[in-house]
Amino acid sequence: MDAILHFLTTVAMTFVACFIVMPIGLAFARRLALYVVVRERQCVVFELFGKVRQVITEPGLHCPWRSMGPFAILLPVFGKKFTVDLRVDQTYLRSQPVNSEEGAPMGIGVWCEMVVSDPVAYLYKNTDPMGSLRANISNATVRCLSNMKLSDMLESRHGMSSLVRQEVSAKSREWGYQVGSIYIRKVHFRDRGMISQIEQKVVNRLRQVTAAIQQDGSNRVNVIRSTAERQAAIEFAKAAATRPQIVGRTLSQIAESPIIANALFEVLETQNLLASSALDVNIIAPGVPLVYAMGAGGPALSAARPPAIPR
Predict the structure, then answer these.
(1) Which one, 39, 85, 116, 203, has the greatest CB density within 10 A?
(2) What are 109's strand-pairing partners?
(3) Mind listing the pLDDT tens digit for each residue in 256-272?
(4) How far is 7 from 231, CA to CA, in rounded Å?
């Protein structure tokens, strides 16, 4: 029983020491500036009586008492501690108003990447360094990119980005910033009426191009068709020219045999007679005179004409 009670007492004391006493003691030590923890991409600045006493940029566990000496005991009461973020930051300025050389109202979207290079200048030379940097980028964009040709403004974004970066970098260093990349991400028209006109022009141009393509296709088809018709006409002309020669050669071969020639001509003559629309066939009964049968006897003879044989 005593062993169990001793075990529970030890557990309770360990719990209190680890989760209550130790956090309170570490917090009190940090309050007295006995140690300070600096994280990755961070900087800690200590100020005492309006003067920067120490700047710690190396990540890890540091003791201000070793570097500041007896002044460290006054930090909790009279000093200040600032933590500066040294990570890369980004900002984007939308639709900065500029005018082209032709007078077109344009909007420029600027993307900027920056990092704090001088924590002391960042803290003490400007009360709002980020706002000042954004204003500086905006002013540099308007100042450097105004009155450019519209074609250059729409095409040469790399050159525009370099101009803005050179203008911004010098002033940003005074505020503790180091400007990384500045890039012109978007160039657009700000006037809705101009946008509508450009869209209408683009639509009209597309219609013209479409009509030109259709006309070119029709012309090509007509050329191909005319070429085919010309070649067909040439072949038909060749066939028409060779037809009499072939027919004449065949007839000359037939004429070599009189019997075949007479039979052929009789067949052709009969065929022509049968194909004639004015053909009238009369059947004459045996023993009837030819003149009488053809109606040469007049009306009186017509009455005595024998009845027609039904067909």
Answers:
(1) 116
(2) 186
(3) 888 888 888 888 888 88
(4) 115
